[in-house]
Design a protein that fits this description.
Largest sheet: 6 strands, antiparallel, barrel
Structural class: mainly beta
Distance between the termini: 6 Å
Radius of gyration: 14 Å
Strand order of the largest sheet: 1-2-3-4-5-6
Helix content: under 10%
Order of helices and strands: EEEEEEE
Number of domains: 1
Shape: elongated
Number of strands: 7
Strand content: over 45%
Length: 86
């Protein structure tokens, strides 16, 4: 399974701390090997902590149980050549 970085943005917690969030799409081959299943979207902080999407603009930091809100228009930019293997 390979994960491809498709987006980066900033999010802020209730205390004003800013987090850099990375959005990945993971492709999982189908069990029969004949085609791909739908890509799965996952989120992680730049430091690697896992993030759960609650709605379009709210996310939950899984390890610390902190809710963060996406900052409007904080597209950080991506480099399409970045891929990671899981």
């Amino acid at each position: 399974m390979a994960a491809v970085l498709v987006d980066q943005f900033h999010a802020r917690d209730a205390e004003g701390r800013v987090y850099s969030v990375h959005e990945f799409q993971e492709s999982t081959p189908s069990a029969d090997g004949l085609g791909d299943t739908k890509p799965v979207t996952t989120y992680k902080l730049a430091i690697g902590d896992r993030v759960k999407k609650l709605d379009d603009n709210q996310f939950l930091l899984i390890q610390s149980d902190v809710t963060i809100v996406r900052e409007p228009d904080t597209y950080v930019g991506i480099r399409p050549e970045i891929t990671t293997a899981s």
